[in-house]
Amino acid sequence: MVSPLELHVCFQTPLHLAVLTQQHHIVRALLVAGASPDSRDRHGNTALHLASDQGLTKCVHALLQPVTVEETSNSGLVFTVPRYISKPALLEELNYDGEYPLSDFALYSGQSARRDAESGPASMPIS
Fold first, then answer.
1. Residues 32, 71: contact at Cβ < 8 Å?
2. Which of 26, 30, 96, 103 has the most CB within a 10 Å radius?
3. Which CATH number does the domain housing residue 21 bear?
4. Using one digit for the tens of pLDDT, what is the confidence trace for 66-114?
5. Is 23 helix (H, G, I), strand (E, B) or coil?
């Protein structure tokens, strides 16, 4: 188990941890609840950087799909202002090494993940 001190030192959020443990359903629930997808860890990686670096297609899809009104309604939570960052903004977030989130994803999936992400999550395969 990771101690709170270790989490603080790594600057990982629950969204980062859900990706690292390959819990795409938790990733989605956190986003619906208002988690910020642009939070960075100590290396400047967003959750999308981590998911694409590990080739986690389901987590990438969960991160890129905008939160729907239906998901918000079904969550039972009350929101005053949507916090979800637009998909193009997430795709342009560089980490501290100057890498885009989906730069390594194409290596794992054998496709142009950036092009697929920009055209919409429906075109991204889920394995």
1. yes
2. 30
3. 1.25.40.20
4. 888 888 888 887 766 555 555 667 778 888 888 888 776 765 555 544 4
5. coil
